[in-house]
Amino acid sequence: MPLYEFHCKECNCDFELLVRGSTACVCPECGSAEVEKLVSLPASPGKTQAMLTRARGQAAREGHFSNYAPSERPRRK
């Protein structure tokens, strides 16, 4: 399910929700159904690559290699 940003027309609150496309959402502050979906900015490629590198480094330190290709996994002795 995608994460969407919304703006409440009643209380002027901005919030994010993880929803299906057909799901009607309500404002978590006032409970109003008068919300509009906002256009979100995509993540920049450089930032995404840095986050992926950090996550893969942490996974490797913890011994989790499921997100690595077989050629990238350490060889067992």
From TrEMBL:
Q: Where is this region: Disordered?
A: 55-77
The Putative regulatory protein FmdB zinc ribbon domain is annotated at 1-40
Give the protein name, as stated in the record. FmdB family transcriptional regulator
